Amino acid sequence: MSYRPIKNRIGPFALARALAWLRLCAIGGQSVAVLVCALWLHLAIPLLPLLACIGLLAVFSVLAAWRLGSPWPVSEGETIAHIGVDTLVLGVLLYFTGGASNPFVTLLLVPIALSAAALSIRAILAVAAIAGATYLVLMLNYVPLPVLDGMHDHGYSLHVIGMGVNFVIAALLLGFFINRLARALRVQQLAMQRVHERALRDEGILAIATQAAGAAHELNTPLSTMRTLLPELRREHAGDAELAEDLSLLEGQVDRCRDILREMVAFGQAQLSQEPERLDVAQFLHSCTERFQLLRPEAELELQLDEDIARLPLRVPPGLRHALLNLLNNAADASALRDSREVLLQVEREGDWLQFLVIDRGPGFASTEGNARLGHSQKQTGLGIGLTLAVATAERLSGELEARNTDDGAVVCLRLPLAVISWH
């Protein structure tokens, strides 16, 4: 299998959203600049065409905001079109106020700088071509900016002031919006890193599942042999009561191993079919606690469940039952480290989430561990993959697994969204 390198680009939607905010800033800044020049400095500029262009940009800003709120994706071509409209309006404003000699003409570079962080090379070249063509037209065709009465330097001092204001505006805009785009890029990279880590973990789980399937197939033969020999041994030693009792216990354990292998096969078939069971919460918990008591008869399991939650219908996906059993089994092991048999299972509803809280009386999690790295507790026995499998199941169901220490032990909370597991 070949992999293509992932390009660290933010994407057209993030740029279009940044342009929407930039457009609002432009509308306010252009309005203030035009009014200051016309009403305060008393420059003879065409006020009506300038305000009309700003009004058209405001209308386009409303339409663009509505477009960004719609569900369909934003393409690079559409983003370039947005930049084209902004550049056209800015070009018309510059045309009536001195063209390329206007100090604010360098604002044509802002869309190019923003596009470089979000679009492809071809799209960046298209944006640069639009800006370059606008600049070229403004060099050849423009309405000269009138000079204030009484200015002996032919407006040079006013031009310098405009350059200073333009520098401040460009610095603020570029600094703010490029920071926003960079932050969006960091969020995207973090999400990609989590997906990569999840893929590596799922690959390890798949390897374990493959080995388990092979082991189940190979164990079936010796278990069948033992099931055949055990009744014969009981008949041959019928007079030995103590041996007969041990053989009966051994026969029960062999039957239990056979049932576990059958459940593994049934679970694999359910996983492949992706058909969830339809049970209410009480039925689901009853099947889990019954299985847990068979696996750990020495454990003292207490279940706390409200009646209104007990009748809630669930779409029990493959893997959820095993994830809860892993948590209960880990809790029983943790409690045993302090010579306790207590395990508490609480089921609560918090808004649109269903929570399974597994509480033990053990030593808790190590101080270096936290919610971000669930996977190993302080117990010394076991294969060490119970929590890892539970975390994988929670993430696959759009849920989360949290852990915290208490004064008497630890609490592991499996939180699942009702939108995913409830039966509507």
- Please identify which CATH superfamily of the domain at 275-421 we are dealing with: Histidine kinase-like ATPase, C-terminal domain
For the residues shown, what is the average pLDDT?
77
Termini separation? 40 Å
**Level-1 CATH class name of the domain at 275-421:** Alpha Beta
CATH architecture of the domain at 275-421: 2-Layer Sandwich
Please report the number of helical segments. 12
Topology pattern, helix = H, strand = E:
HHHHHHHEHEHEHEEHEEH
Report the radius of gyration as a whole number of Å. 35 Å
Beta-strand share of residues: 5-15%
Could you list the spans in which at least 5 consecutive residues all have pLDDT below 50?
A: 1-9, 368-373, 375-383
* Strand neighbour order, sheet with most strands: 2-4-5-7-6
Helix percentage: 55-70%
Number of strands: 7
From the helix content, strand content and strand pairing, which structural class follows? alpha+beta
The biggest beta sheet reads:
5 strands, mixed
Stated plainly, the CATH topology of the domain at 275-421 is called Heat Shock Protein 90
User: What is the 3D form?
Assistant: elongated
